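How a chain folds remains the central question behind the approach discussed here. This step matters because it turns folding into a mapping between discrete strings. The sequence in question and its structure tokens are set out directly beneath this paragraph.
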Amino acid sequence: MKNMMGRQPTERGITLQRAVFPATLPWEPKGLLSPWLATRKAVAARYGHVRWRVMDITCVAYTALIGALLPVFHRGVLNWPRHVGIHCLLVLGFLEVIRVGEKTPRRPWLWALRTFYPVILVFYGWKELGALQVMFYGDYWATGTITGLDKLLFGVHPTVWVQKLYRPWLDETIKVSYFGYYLFLPIVTVTLYFKKKKEAVLAAFSIITCSYLVNFILFYLFPVVNPHCVPEIQALTTRAHSGYLIAKILPRVIGTGWNPGGAFPSSHVSGALVWSLVAARYLKKLRYAMFPMTFGVAVATVYLGYHHALDPIFGLIVGGVGFGLGLRWVKSRGEDPLTR
């Protein structure tokens, strides 16, 4: 029976005057309500068996976040689509490394790759800061704030004041301390790995990535260039540090990852502190060497003119907080081998 609007149900669908509309849409197959659900099913089928560690969550999330923000925020970034593509490839690569490593844990080289892949992100994340750090603001707006606070708190620019202490033997000693930072990662992780403490290595990387990636995010939010790139400080510079053997090696090591920003807070100092705290937890004997080295790294960052005085101070704060939050997160997920 027709209703008041002229509609009449039929076997084929609904009749409206002379037009017939099907009761079900032929392009909507059953069980596949949307591309989103299809994607979720595909991801669950491929990665559902994976045991996700804290380091996996932080590395994949950070890489995806920067890549997703770049199409919107890319002020001063040259060829930003290229960086988006690299981040997409990194995310896919990390996911596959995690999946294959968890699927075949008895294959030593695959498990080693699954364990140490965060090193790729730490080094690449630092390296790309030279191109991406100004993506939100277009400049290093926080530089003036940090240099102004340095001078207000200390009465001088500390990186200028320390120049009167420069002597070859002292310069070399300080550079040895700074160079030691680059040994922290391999010493701790490789030692744990060859001692068959595989869960401890994963926990160490989970804790350290929390600190490093928080540091990187702060670099983007508070972009600051190092003292070598501040005209006011360079105008006051009268002496250069020297040294002997390490003085010749260090510039080559630093030069591979040099960028003008990445100053505040100091990731070298926060990283050194977290590696020392990780060593104190899982390799207790190493702490006696690593904590003094961490103090030496903090002093060296200012003495050598690589950082403003506030950078290592806040680096220690970020490192301490990052270690505490990272360890708490690892414990809450049952990933800390000492508290299971």
Q: What stands out?
A: The first strand starts at residue 7 and ends at 9. Residues 51-332 form one domain. The chain has one domain: 51-332.
